[in-house]
User: What shape does this take?
Amino acid sequence: TTLQPYNSTITNLETKKIIIAITGASGAIYARILLQKLRAISGDLEEVALILSKTGEEVWRYELPDISPDDFGFQRYDPECFFSPPASGSAGYDAMIIIPCSMGTLGRIAHGTSDNLIVRAADVILKERKKLVLVPREMPCNRIHLQNMLTLTDAGGVVCPASPSFYQRPATLEESCETVVVRAMKLAGLPVGEKPWSGSVQV
Assistant: This one.
C-alpha cells in the first residue's frame, strides 16, 4: 500500500455545527489547541458552541493565565442555562467534544443526570445518535471510572483518553498534546491531515 504524503491542512470537512465543552480536569492545553484549530477553519463551520464549567474556567485560568477562552471568538453559553441551543436536539448540532473531560462530568453523562448544560448537551447528542467524543485525562482509573466509560461506549459515545502518541516523534509539549487533539477531531468528523503510521520501522 502506498502511503499518502503528509498534509497539514484539514480536508473532507463533514461536521458543520459542533459543541466544545471544557470541564474541570487538568489539561486546558488540549482545549486551547483544539480552539485554535477550530478557529483556523471557522469559515467552514456553521457554528462552534463553547461551554465551560465553572471549575473548567478556573483550571483554564490557572494553567493558561495568558490566554482566555474568549479570545477565539466562539459563542459561549452559560453552563447553567438550559434555554441555550445545545440543550435541544432541534438545534441540529452534529458533534460534541468534551476536552478535557473530568470524571465527574463523564459519570453524570453516563447516568443521564443532565444537571448542567454540558451534561444535558451530551445527553442530547447521544439521543440524537450524533458523535460524542470525551477526552478524559484522569489516571489511574478506578472501577467506577471504567464502568462509566463502558456505559458511555455502549450508549454510542467515544472515550478518547488524553494519551499522546509518539511515533510522529513530537519535539515539544505542544506537538505531543496536538496528537490527542487531532485524534479527537477526526473522531468527531473533523478530518485533519495527519502523518500516517507506516506499520513498520526500518532498523
